[in-house]
Design goal:
With 562 residues, this protein is mainly alpha-helical. 60% of the residues lie in helices and 5% in strands. It has 2 domains: 354 residues, no CATH class; 134 residues, no CATH class. Helix 1 runs antiparallel to helix 2.
Length: 562
């Protein structure tokens, strides 16, 4: 029913657009409101269907949450202004989300794709912000342009499969487009009251971006360059708006900055691992160069389906000599938004010897779908692009993705899941939590399991914190040492807890031995008894046919103070 109505809306929009190309001004005035309403409905429904499909697919194909997502939950157990890796915004959001919803995988994937939906809507709003105020006769072209932008987004890897993760990278999917929208609106709006509103909103979103990931300084520097390079925007600095914006921005960041100063900037240890100069990396010149080339080409391989669609539409759609939809100065702004962030990152990587990670590029290309649609509008007549055909292509994409992932999951369940530690599919975090909880109840009946830690962070401690019914506090490594002291659990020695030694799919079996030896030494240094136990478990449920047994070593910690 939903898909049938979906195509009906697209067909009606095609009819209205055909009439718009040949009817008089009276008809255009009469149909204009209908066109706008139908188009908005189509865009919003497309976003909803896309995100719903991929959220359900994630629940079916990925029974175990990503380690980053579990870490978010662990950090969100207490309200802090930072962590030993990232700023705190996404852990706050995770905490608030699970105050409303149960701690289940489907609820977490719903959060991931809600974030993705906000990202898609933000890119559409940014597109509309860059488009000029068209005459009514051009509204059909504008609506087709917006749908093409959305189509290129939906075909892109960051906005379908990769969006399943909710972490420090993907939170930027929604923050960056909306920050750019607020920035441009604060510059372009002339009405004083609205200008103040947009300026204040930009301050809030800019601060939120930094609190999402420090990487967002790339976006803010890009926007600053745009405001300087574009002559029409320079007058902004002769008004009180930018200075009020800066003041609010710094005010919002002050608690986090104060926290970092007090904790002596604990994120430095984490970020230093990405420096090419550290002995562990020891990259050759060619490896550094290929790393930069690979990162710069991410706008191609992340959007390979989008570019393929772009080429097909250019070849099969009637040509046009008209100007692109986004013209003149706004076209320059679009180019800046598209290419300045990636350029700044590459320059920074060269200057500061940073080893670039591919996942960092997933949020950088938020303006690329807009650029693709604008380039297409320069070569073809957008009004001649049949919307129903685009809807069919999108539906084929959804159908192919669903079919492929279901078949792949069946293959994993029947073959790969039988091999120990081959895939995340059979990692069985929930089963591990159940087995440990049952054993705790046997050993300490009536007692409360309050905290846990582990050498393999966040794999086991954070997973247990998420899946155990009472959600014990998860801390990294040992509870009285860094980095646990960044967000300490001060009463650990007065409560029942556990230290978990295990390995995930990427770890060598020696990790367990190393963890056991370190835990023995730590317990001896604290004069605590060694209460060690091996617990076996395996993945269970309708998703699995036969799975290998897994093991973790648990050190039970009992209160040392009555």
């Amino acid at each position: 029913m939903v898909i049938r109505d979906y195509f009906f809306v697209g067909h009606q929009l095609d009819i209205i657009m055909d009439k718009n190309t040949m009817s008089n001004h009276h008809f255009l005035q009469k149909e204009n409101t209908v066109l706008g309403a139908v188009s908005s409905f189509l865009l919003s429904r497309t976003v909803f269907i896309h995100c719903t499909i991929f959220a359900i697919l994630a629940w079916f194909c990925l029974p175990n949450l990503g380690h980053d997502m579990l870490e978010n939950y662990a950090w969100g157990q207490t309200f802090e202004w930072g962590s030993f890796k990232h700023p705190p915004l996404f852990s706050w959001i995770t905490r608030w989300w699970f105050m409303l919803w149960p701690t289940t995988t489907i609820a977490y994937y719903a959060l991931s794709y809600l974030n993705n939906a906000l990202a898609l809507l933000g890119i559409l709003c940014l597109s509309r912000q860059l488009l000029p105020n068209k005459e009514q006769s051009n509204l059909a072209q504008t609506q087709l342009f917006l749908f093409l932008v959305l189509l290129f987004c939906l075909f892109a890897y960051p906005y379908n499969l990769y969006a399943v993760k909710f972490n420090a990278d993907t939170i930027l999917f929604s923050l960056w487009p909306w920050t750019a929208v607020a920035f441009l609106a604060s510059l372009d709006t002339t009405a004083s009251f609205k200008k103040w509103l947009w300026t204040l909103l930009f301050s809030v979103l800019a601060a939120a971006s930094i609190l999402g990931k420090y990487f967002s300084v790339v976006l803010l520097f890009t926007l600053f360059i745009i405001s300087i390079v574009e002559q029409r925007y320079r007058a902004w600095y002769k008004t009180p708006f930018p200075y009020a914006c800066l003041a609010l921005f710094l005010l919002l960041l002050t608690p986090h900055i104060a926290w970092e100063v007090r904790m002596d900037f604990p994120f430095r240890t984490y970020t230093s691992r990405y420096l090419s100069t550290i002995p562990e990396n020891n990259f050759t010149l060619w490896e550094c160069l290929s790393n930069i080339i690979n990162f710069s080409l991410s706008g191609i391989y992340y959007f390979v389906l989008s570019w393929t669609t772009w080429l097909i539409l250019r070849q099969r759609t009637p040509k046009s000599s008209a100007a692109p939809c986004i013209e003149k100065s706004n076209k320059r702004v679009l180019n800046y938004l598209c290419f300045l962030p990636i350029s700044l990152i590459i320059v920074s990587a060269v200057v500061f010897n940073i080893h670039l990670m591919e996942r960092w590029a997933t949020s950088v290309w938020f303006a690329l779908p807009i650029l693709m649609a604008n380039l297409l509008s320069k070569h073809v007549d957008l009004v001649k692009v049949p919307l129903t055909v685009l809807l069919k292509r999108l539906t084929y994409f959804w159908a192919f993705t669903v079919t492929f992932l279901l078949v792949f999951t069946l293959f994993v369940a029947t073959y790969q899941a039988q091999k120990e530690n081959r895939l995340d599919y059979a990692e069985a975090n929930k089963e591990m939590a159940v087995a440990i909880a049952q054993q705790f109840e046997k050993k300490f009946p009536g007692k409360k399991f309050n905290w846990l830690s582990g050498f393999s962070w966040p794999d086991h401690p954070a997973a247990l914190a998420f899946y155990l019914p009472n959600h014990p506090r998860a801390v990294p490594f040992f509870p009285d040492q860094m980095p646990a002291l960044v967000n300490p659990h001060a009463t650990w020695n007065q409560e029942y807890g556990a230290i978990i030694c295990g390995k995930n799919i990427k770890d060598d079996v020696r990790l367990i031995t190393d963890c056991i030896n370190r835990t023995h030494a730590w317990l001896a240094s604290k004069h605590l008894p060694i209460n060690e136990e091996m617990i076996a478990y395996h993945a269970q449920g309708w998703r699995y046919f036969k799975t290998a047994e897994k093991q973790v070593v648990v050190f039970w910690i009992t209160p040392s103070v009555a």
